[in-house]
Amino acid sequence: MKRRVSPAAAGLPAIAKQPGTPRKKAAVAGPRAEAAPRAVKRTPPQTDRLDQIQTVIVGSLEDDKAEEIVTLDLVGRAAFADRMVIATGLADRQISAMATHLSDKLRDVGIRRVQVEGAGGSDWVLIDAGDIVIHLFKPEARALYGLERMWGTPALDEA
Predict the structure, then answer these.
(1) Which of these, 34, 49, 112, 128, is most buried using a 10 Å CB contact count?
(2) What is the pLDDT of residue 132?
């Protein structure tokens, strides 16, 4: 017995002519060409906004008596952030308090997703504020990891 094919299905690809539900047919056929993933372009944030956030960060660290506050510009050199702030605290309790105050002040400025790693009492606390990453170190850990040497400008390394 010959199977009857509707005139609408006659012009469709072979997958549409096979028996099964539309969902099964779509799974077998795979993704459509126009549904291919597109490369996401990262738009650089406005420098005015970055300057405002950086001012809040540095001000908060200065209020909490952080030492040796350094800001590095990473635009064009790193994909994970546009700026990095590095500061030193003398004790675990001071570093933990700096991280707490900083995350509160960043939320007040409008940064909703502030990720804090290592605030439970370690030598290094990382605060991810999106386009700005903040590292809070004890003096020994800061010397050990040397982020300024790694991400600083080459002219500073030669001096």
Answers:
(1) 128
(2) 87
